[in-house]
Amino acid sequence: MTKTILILTNKDDVTVDYIVMELQRRKIKYYRLNTEDIPSSVIIDFDITNNSFGLYDIKKDFTLDLSDITAVYYRRPLISDLNTLAGISTSEKEYLRSELTYILEGIYKVLRNKYWLNYVYRIREAENKIYQLIVAKELGVKLPESIITNSYNSIIKFIGDNNDNIIKPIKSGHLKKKQNSAAIFTSKYDLNENDQDRLELFPNYLQRNIIKSFDIRCIVVGSEVFVAEIHSQNDEESVIDWRRGKNVLKHSKHVLPDDIKIFCISITRKFELNYSAIDFILDTNGDYYFLEINPNGQWAWIENRLGYPISSKIVDMLVNEGE
Amino acid sequence: MKRPIILDYAIERTGNNKKDFHYEYTRDINVTNINGINMPFIELTEYSKELETKTRVERESDDEGYNLLELTTKTAVQREQDDEEYCLSELLTKTEVEREQDDESYNTLELYSKTYVERERDDEDNINFN
User: Fold this and answer.
1) Residue of chain B nearest A36, judged by CA positions
2) B77, B89, B113: which to substitute to probe chain A, counting the most A Cβ within 10 Å?
3) Does the structure show a pLDDT above 90 at A290?
């Protein structure tokens, strides 16, 4: 059977461009489905009675039969904003977008038995950071001491035990506002005794501040792990959260000890993922501290910076439907 | 009015909304027009480096390559390097930063969550992704 790779993403996803160019270079059949083009330039053509699931791409004059797909690369699908539809209200538009969401989910279900990197529902399962910490702990890796609580007494005890701490978001650091959006980065937290009421208002995620040698990002693709040191400690802004620095941080290749490499592969498999991006701190004593696993995390800049063949390995996995 | 502590740490994103590439359907990739040629956006950094080297040697003080070099510098300053939006090296524009296609909030489920939160208790919302 001819291999046909389906890429689920949106047009602005430049990371997928790496994959597309690699697929083109190898002359492998693929279709990039920019899901925001449904229904304006990609026509849905499902006939449940006859078990036929087709997409017609108007711009390419091309029909895709979903049964021909052998593997799926799941990236960043978006739902159309439907701004081309005239004469509908905001609530009607949201209703229609919700309908599109379910159609897209139907596509996932039609393709459920194909090879995925990563399967969308496994991504969802793995995203919860509390669950990640629980699983990582079970697998025996070191974690920063962590609490999530709005119990003031628990916070006082934690800060008594760990006098240098950080505060971070539990799910997302992305804060939408009416005008400009905002970001919430991991930040140093010092207790202010006047804050009791505020600490009790909402659960707070606190961790002991681990003094870093540098940050580490591991890109796991199957059983291969590409590791980058991110030298975050030379720039004051990026000491606590390397993503915050405005300057370009030095990156270099890093070799993990066997037990940490095995952990990276194990936790990825534990979540039934074929790909993950895992963040660690290497502390000043040489100990590795797990921070989080991103089941759909970014990798292109690591390939760009350090020359790792990540896109090539991802394509290998899609073509071979595994390793 | 008292507010949760975590909100004290919100930093407003800055930058412009200009996108420095456009999607080319025939090639399935994003491109940037350089001197009349649509270059793959992901190859732009290397190209700009080459151009920078070349122009340092050849030019006096012309504008050649200015846009490319500015792009690299500007986006390096403006980018938000968090995992949610850290899309591609240092070439990110605010358009990417703003959109909902980050690591955490991949759109379908995010949209669903919103629906879930806002729902009334009818049958259609009882389907759960988990």
Assistant:
1) B107
2) B89
3) yes
Residues of B in contact with A97 (CB under 8 A): 111
Residue showing tokens 């994959």: A19
Residue pair B28/B11 in contact (Cβ under 8 Å)? The answer is no
> For B111, which of A97, A301, A304 is closest by C-beta distance?
A97
Q: What is the tens place of the pLDDT at every residue in A258-288?
A: 999 999 999 999 999 999 999 999 999 999 9
**Tens-digit pLDDT profile for residues A310-321:** 999 999 999 999
User: If you count residue pairs, one on A and one on B, with CB atoms under 8 Å apart, how many are there?
Assistant: 175
Question: Reading across the β-sheet that carries A212-221, which strands appear in turn?
Answer: A250-253, A224-231, A212-221, A275-283, A288-294
Structure tokens at A136: 């990582």
Q: How many angstroms separate the first and last alpha carbons of chain A?
A: 18
Residues of A in contact with B109 (CB under 8 A): 120, 124
Q: How many CB atoms lie within 10 A of CB A312?
A: 16
pLDDT at residue B12, rounded to an integer: 83
∠ CA B23-B95-A93, rounded to 5°: 85
Rounded distance between C-alpha atoms, residue A116 and residue A12, angstroms: 21
DSSP state string for A4-55: EEEEEE-TT-HHHHHHHHHHHHHT-EEEEEEGGGTTTTEEEEEETTTTEEEE
**A74 φ/ψ angles, rounded to the nearest 5 degrees:** -95, 120
Query: Contacts of residue B100 in chain A, CB cutoff 8 Å?
Result: 78
Distance from CA of A52 to the nearest CA of B (A): 24
Q: Which helix (H) or strand (E) holds A63?
A: strand A62-65
In chain B, what residues touch A278 (CB-CB under 8 Å)?
none
